[in-house]
Structure formats: structure tokens, C-alpha cells
Amino acid sequence: MSSPLLSSSKTSGLRGDPVAAPLRLWRAPSQLFISKGHDSYSKKQLLLRIGCKVRTSKEAAGRVLPEDAKKVALPSAAPPLSGDGGGSRQESGRVPVGNQKLGSAPLWVPLKRVRKKILALLSNLPLAIGEMFTIAALMALGTCIDQGEAPDYYFQKFPEESPVLGFITWKWILYLGFDHMFSSPVFLGMLALLAASLMACTYTTQIPMVKVARRWSFMHSAERIRKQEFSDTLPQASIQDLGVILMGGGYEVFLKGPSLYAFKGLAGRFAPIGVHLAMLLIMAGATVSATGSFRGSVTVPQGLNFVVGDVMVPNGFLANPIGAFDTEVHVNRFYMEYYDSGEVSQFYTDLSLFNMDGKEVMRKTISVNDPLRYGGVTIYQTDWSISALQVIKDGEGPFNLAMAPLKINGDKKLYGTILPVGDLDSPNVKGISMLARDLQSIVLYDQEGKFVGVRRPSSKLPIEIDGSKIIIEDAIGSSGLDLKTDPGVPVVYAGFGALMLTTCISYLAHSQIWALQDGTTVVIGGKSNRAKLEFPEEINRLLDRVPELVGVDDFVSNLTTEQRSLDSSSP
């Protein structure tokens, strides 16, 4: 590499100077450069400053030197020659020594240092593991604490007098937003911190590793090749034949003179980046779901309807209404299926959806784990109840008697109503009590509370109680529906799909092989980031297929031996 002196315009004109002496001189008005052999000693140059006036020793002894003249500056390299020999700051690009400011640095230098420190801190593996454990703990806490309840609920369940686990009270839950855990600032902040750690790790570790893996790195030293995880030697072989065999084994092969480089499984190096991106997708989708969704729940009796937008409540500051909120939902029918023991096994709701013009746009019967999806709104079947009984009394009716839920021990459901009998204006009105656990049977009691009998709805079988003939015409059920819009679900699904794919790809081994032709010997070495046991076995199988080189003398000798054996065997 030539020095700046020899690459200047003036110097380029002097290169053709036919000077035969080993020492060449280039003079400038105030500088003298001496170079031994321009091509071989261009880096060793001597700079001599020549004064304008020669002084005698007497004059020099009687003269007081200025303060700045007592200092000698030794430059580390020769400055470039300027066009006129004077050399200004603009022409040479150098700042005079007297005008330099010590300790000053460009503004971006400390910023780069701060950026490096931040990236090193965020890409720390223990920090990322701690973030994931914290997020997992918050998610577990969110499943233990009932979400979305009224403040009074937390006042009663988490009082200050008896904290749960010794410290969890309603103040912790409400102040930290743990009543809406997955949209709380603490949870979203931890997601953002983990996302920053993943991006920092990708930028500082994974991307540089991929760049290094993509380079064609030839080795020109047999000693370096023998220091690899696997090494071997083929005494009579050709590196070209080895390349052909490796190509047949699925390797990408590159030859440069006597050196060979081959690799396969480079996709395994890209997989960690894909894993990080997939995790970022999942967290982004979860954030959108937590801050940009609508949720609502409603219990609708059979035959009635509701408007989607009337029951939806925003779940975050990014939530925006959509066009499907104007859709009207009509419950055509609600019914249940039962086990042989009489327990409810499944319940169904036949729904019809109507647009603003009253036109039916969709109809579907939903059940548990089989929701209805329309225009970004998902309607789930989640619960049921009994809203009313249709009763005929003494041939009159039917009368709709509202059913009320009754509190009982356990998770069983029980609904009840009363049919007034006698004087309705009396303050002590008595009646016939009716209880139901489901839609398939109704239990009846007289005015004294004594059991009378059981009737199935729509059986048309009358029962006489206290002088009145009662027929249970029908039991009207109510469908419990949950509605939601969740724009983050597709993003989360895409993230999990990418995570599974990239996790499988990450198990692909990235294998590298180097080889060097040393005479008739080929030195081979290689390594793999995975498959430490399988890699040597695979290479040995490939090396066994490399043909052995046979010299001319050996070939003639083999032919002579075969000819003699044939002659001796012939009669």
C-alpha cells in the first residue's frame, strides 16, 4: 500500500524519472524526503525540515529562541505534498498543531458508546430469562385474580385486614391494574422490555453470526485445518474429486486454487432470527388484543334479539368500532342435549344476523367450542338459563311466568317461579310453586309446599293442584352469549405458526468443511454447530467415496503384474 506522498499528483509525475541510483530524492520548497527504493521501502521515510537561513554557531549561541521553538514535533507519518509546496489546511486536510483542541471529540462518539452499553445491557441473556419469568408470573397471577370485576368485588375478596399471601390486597390489585392484568401498564411494560431484549440480541449476536456464516472462508494452512473438530488426510486424492463427492452429499462447494470450502444447512443459522421475529409477532398480537379489542356478554331469551354494538365495551385505548356493530342478532331457538344421567351435555342456539335493511346476512346454530364469526365479530356460546314457563290454568292462557335463579350449594343450577292462586289482592298470596333444573322436567308443589308431581314441557299432560288443572305448555330457555372483536388474533396465530416452523428449522445443523491440496495429499477438516456425533460419521462416509489417484509407474506395474499372472496361468 503506497503512502500519501507517492500517490499525490506531483509524485505521480516523478515516478517516471529515470534515476538509476538506489537512493531517490524528491524536493519540496520546505521539505526533503529520502526513500530507498520506492517499491520496497516506501513506508520508511525520513522528514527533514530545512531553514531558510544558515546561521553560524556564534549567532545561534547569542540568540534567545522563542518559547514555541524549543518544542520538537515528530509526526507519525509524512504529510502529503501540496501543489505549491506551502500546503494550507484546506488543501492538506490537516489541522496545525497550534490550532488543535486537546480532549475534544465529535458529538456522535459518546452517543455511540451509550448505544453500545444499552445494547449490551438489553442483549444480556440472564436479563431476558428474568423478563420471561416475570411475564409468566404475571400471567399466572392474572389467572388467579378474577378479571374485569367491579371494585366492590375486590374490596370484599381482598380486604386489607386479611391480605392474601400476606400482602395482596385490593389496593395492590386496583392501583397496579391487575383487575385487567393483560392490559395493565406493568404487563405491557414487561412485554416491551422483552421485545427490546430480543431485538438487541438479534442485532448484536444473531445477524453478525449469519454474516460470518455466509462468507466463503478459505483456509490456506494445513495446520489450521487439522485443528478443526474433525480432520483427516487422503494421501492419494484430488481436491476436485472431493468437491464432486461433497456436492453429491448436499454441500455447496467453492474452489480457489488448492483450497476448498463447503457448507450446508445455512438455514439453521437464520432460524434464531426467525424465532425472535415470531416471538415479537406474538407479543405484538397480544398487545393489540389487550388494547384494541371489544368485549361484551348478554343473556337473550328465545325469540328475542339485540344489536351487537349495544353490548360491546371497549377493552383498551386502541379499540375502534367496526361496521358489524350495526348488525342485529335474533335468537331463533335455544335447546339442550342431555346425558343418560340427566345432566346437560351440550346446549345450542340458532342465530340469525340481519343488516340495517332487515335482510338476513347469516344464520348458524352455535354451541360450545363452535362460535359464529361475522365481520370481525365472534359470538360464543358460553352459558344458559331458564327465562320463563308457559302455563295453562283451567283452560286459560298460556301465561308466561318469569323464572328466577335460586341460590343453592355447589355449581348446580335451579330456577323457580310461582303461580298465584286465590285472591290476588290479598297481602298473603299463596300459589303453586314450580322448580326446574333444566328444560326437560318441571317439579310442582302445592300451596303448602308439598310435592305434587313432575311434568315435562310440551307433554300436554295436566296435573291437578289445589283444585286447579295445570298444563306446562313450554319452558323458554335463554342463551348466554359472549361477543368480542380481537384484531390481534391473526397476528398471534401467525406468530405461533412462524415460531413452530423456525424452531424446527433451527435444528438443522450448519456444517462447514475445509480442504487443502498438498501435493497428492488432501487435508480435510470440518465442524458443525449441531449433530456432533453424526457429523464425523457423515464425513467418513463421503471420504470413503473419494477415488484414489494412481501414478503412471504404479499403473504400469499393476499391468505387468496382471500380465504375468495371466501368462503363468495359461498352459
TrEMBL record:
InterPro entries in UniProt: Cyt_c_bgen_Ccs1/CcsB/ResB (IPR023494), ResB-like_domain (IPR007816)
Residue ranges of every copy of the ResB-like domain listed in the record: 127-387, 449-539
Residues that span the membrane, as ranges: 118-141, 186-205, 273-294
Compartment annotation: Membrane
GO biological process, one term: cytochrome complex assembly
Location of the region described as Disordered in the Swiss-Prot/TrEMBL record: 75-98
PANTHER family tied to this protein: CYTOCHROME C BIOGENESIS PROTEIN CCS1, CHLOROPLASTIC
Protein name, UniProt field: ResB-like domain-containing protein
Organism this protein belongs to: Spirodela intermedia
